[in-house]
């Protein structure tokens, strides 16, 4: 049986996020966007996930999953937590942040690495205050709150891309 991207059970309900604490709201919105990206991939086989569908762009759904694993690692673990770890999929000089180098044969592995990075990102932020700061690679002092906001906007932007890619793959639209 061929592997397909797993179905996603929503754990976040947007309506309930409006009455939570700031921390719960930030975590909830981030989780909702993480789930949305996976929802856009659900049920597709590796070839569909790795296919370019909006020419001339080389963007793929699998590339977005890989990219977001890199971004999770960069902001939560390497930048905020200061972990001395390398990239998930790419080298520091290539600049593609996981978007390129997509291979259908690695889809299941890449999804697993994404989930691992999400878990590690959550662990890096657990018990840490939103006002805790770090120095960015550009010499700017940033807070954990800023990281959450940056991640939410990054997912929101790429989930828009995922909408088009999925619709062009098999006509599926929606969350």
Q: How would you summarize the topology of this molecule?
A:
Elements: H1 22-41, H2 46-50, H3 61-80, H4 107-125, E1 133-135, E2 141-143, H5 144-170
Antiparallel strand pairs: 1-2
Helix pairs in contact: 1-3, 1-5, 3-4, 3-5
CATH architecture: Up-down Bundle
How many distinct helices?
5
User: In what range is the share of β-strand residues?
Assistant: under 5%
Q: What's the story with the biggest beta sheet?
A: 2 strands, antiparallel
Can you identify the CATH class?
A: Mainly Alpha
What is the CATH homologous superfamily assignment? Answer: dinb family like domain
Mean pLDDT: 92
Give the SSE string.
HHHHEEH
Got a strand count?
Answer: 2
Helical amount: 40-55%
Tell me what the structure shows.
By secondary structure, the chain is mainly alpha-helical. It has a single domain, classed as Four Helix Bundle (Hemerythrin (Met), subunit A) (Up-down Bundle), CATH 1.20.120. It is built from 5 helices and 2 strands, in the order ααααββα. It has helices spanning 22-41, 46-50, 61-80, 107-125, 144-170, and strands spanning 133-135, 141-143. It has a two-stranded antiparallel ribbon with strand order 1-2. α1 (22-41) packs antiparallel against α3. The longest helix is centred in the C-terminal third of the chain and has 27 residues, at 144-170. It is globular and about 45 Å long. The relative contact order is 0.18.
Write a brief caption for the model.
The protein has a single domain, classed as dinb family like domain (Four Helix Bundle (Hemerythrin (Met), subunit A), Up-down Bundle), CATH 1.20.120.450. The protein contains five helices and two strands. It is mostly helical and 175 residues long.
């Amino acid at each position: 049986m061929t592997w397909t991207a797993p179905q996603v059970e929503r754990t976040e309900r947007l309506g309930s996020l409006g009455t939570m604490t700031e921390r719960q709201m930030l975590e909830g919105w981030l989780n909702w966007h993480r789930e949305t990206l996976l929802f856009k991939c659900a049920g597709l086989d590796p070839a569909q996930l790795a296919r370019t569908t909006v020419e001339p762009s080389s963007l793929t759904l699998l590339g977005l999953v890989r990219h977001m694993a890199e971004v999770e690692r960069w902001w939560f673990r390497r930048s905020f937590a200061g972990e001395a770890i390398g990239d998930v999929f790419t080298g520091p000089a290539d600049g593609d942040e996981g978007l390129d180098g997509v291979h259908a044969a690695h889809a299941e592995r890449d999804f697993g690495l994404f989930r691992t990075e999400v878990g590690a990102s959550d662990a890096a932020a657990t018990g840490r205050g939103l006002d805790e700061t770090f120095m960015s690679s550009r010499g700017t002092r940033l807070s954990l709150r800023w990281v959450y906001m940056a991640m939410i906007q990054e997912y929101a932007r790429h989930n828009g891309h995922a909408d088009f890619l999925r619709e062009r793959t098999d006509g599926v639209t929606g969350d």
